[in-house]
Amino acid sequence: MKQALKAIQKISFWVVVLALLAYSIFPIYWMVVTSFRSTATITSDSGLWPQDPTFENFLGLNRLFNYSEQYMNSLIVATSVTVITMLICTLVAYAIARRNFKGRKTLTIALLFSYMFPPLLTLIPLYVYMVKAGLGDTLIALIIVELTVTMPLGIWMLWGFFKSMPFQLEEAAMIDGCSRLGAFVRIMLPLAKPGMITVAIFSFLISWNGYLAPTVMIESDSNKTLQMGLTAVSANMTSQWGLLMAACTMIVAPLVVGFLLLNRYFIQGLAGAGVKG
Length: 277
Fold this sequence. Notes:
Mean pLDDT: 80
Structural class: mainly alpha
Distance between the termini: 45 Å
Largest sheet: none
Shape: globular
Strand content: under 5%
Number of strands: 0
C-alpha cells in the first residue's frame, strides 16, 4: 500500500512538473516555430515544425521598420547599464558590508526607501533634469534613468552576498601579505562571481525589456529602442504573424542564450543573496 502511494505521489509530481514546463516553454517554442513559417502557410501549417522553413520573416523586419538600428540601440543601452551596474554595485555593496563609515546606516535606509516609489514616479523629474543638462533625447539619458532602477537592486543583492562571506578569508589573505585591495580582487571577487552574474542578468533583463523609460526619454527615430519600434508597428502587423513572431524571437534570443549559459551562477547568486541579506 505504501509503495503504491509513493508511486502515485511520484507520478503526480512529474505530471505537475511536465505540465508547468509545457505551460512555460511551449508558447516560446511556438513563437520560434511560427517565425520560420511563411505568411501563406501560417494558418494552414499546424505541425510542431514548419514544413518549409524560411528566413523571409527575419529578412523582412528591416523593411517594416528600422529594426537593425533599434536593435543596436537596445543592445548599447542594456550592455552599458549592465557593466556600470556591476562595477558600481560591487564596490558599494562591498563597502557597506565590510566597512564602517559615516553615513553607512543612512545609505542603507536610502536603498530601502528607493523601493517604496515606483519608477514611474521619478521618470518625469528625471526627464526634466536630463533636458536641462542637455541630454534630452539621448541614449546617455536613457542609460542614466535605467541605472536608477538597476543599481539599488544590485547593491541590495550584492550586499547580502558579501555579508554571507566570512571575514576570516580577507584577514588570512592580508596576514599573508595581501593588501585590502589585493584581498578584494583575489579573494572576494571570485567568491562573489555568482552574485555579480545574477545582478548582471537582472540588469540586462530590466534595461533590455524597458519600454516606459524609453518612451518618456526618447523622441527621435534614430534613438528609439527595439521595444519602442516593435510597439509602434505592432498595430499594423495584426495579419503578419510571421514578422511579429520573428521580431519577438530576436528580442527573446539574447535573454534565453544568456540564461542557458549562466543559469548555474544565477541560481547560486539568488541563493547567496538571500542567505543573510
